[in-house]
C-alpha cells in the first residue's frame, strides 16, 4: 500500500476550514465535543467499528461531560494525511448522531 502522502500546511489549512471545531496541534488534529458520558460511550463503540473498517483510528479521551478525538497518521510517521480528515468528518457525524439521542 505504501506510505500515505503527507499533506502540506496549505492543504491542512484548507481541510481544516471544512471542519469547524477541529484545530491543528502540531502534526495532529483534535476536537473536543460536549457530550454526556453514556452517549459518548455509545459513540466510541460506533467510532471503533468504523475505524476497524477503514483501518484508521483516532485517540479518544473520554471525560465526564466531553470527549476529545485526536487524529494523525501513524503510518506516515505521525504526520497529517487525507485519511485523518476523512476520519474527522466521520467522527463528527457519529458524535452528532449520539448527541442527538434523547436521554432515557
Ligand atoms: C495495518 C493497519 O492498516 C495500520 O496499522 C493502520 C491502522 N490504523 C491507523 N490509524 C491511524 N490513525 N494511523 C495509521 O497509520 C493507522 N494505520
From TrEMBL:
The keyword Ion transport does not apply. Its EC number is 4.2.1.96. It comes from the Bacteria. InterPro entries: PCD_sf, Pterin_deHydtase. GO terms for biological process: tetrahydrobiopterin biosynthetic process. Keywords: Lyase. It catalyses: (4aS,6R)-4a-hydroxy-L-erythro-5,6,7,8-tetrahydrobiopterin = (6R)-L-erythro-6,7-dihydrobiopterin + H2O. This is Putative pterin-4-alpha-carbinolamine dehydratase. The lineage of its organism: Bacteria, Bacillati, Actinomycetota, Actinomycetes, Kitasatosporales.
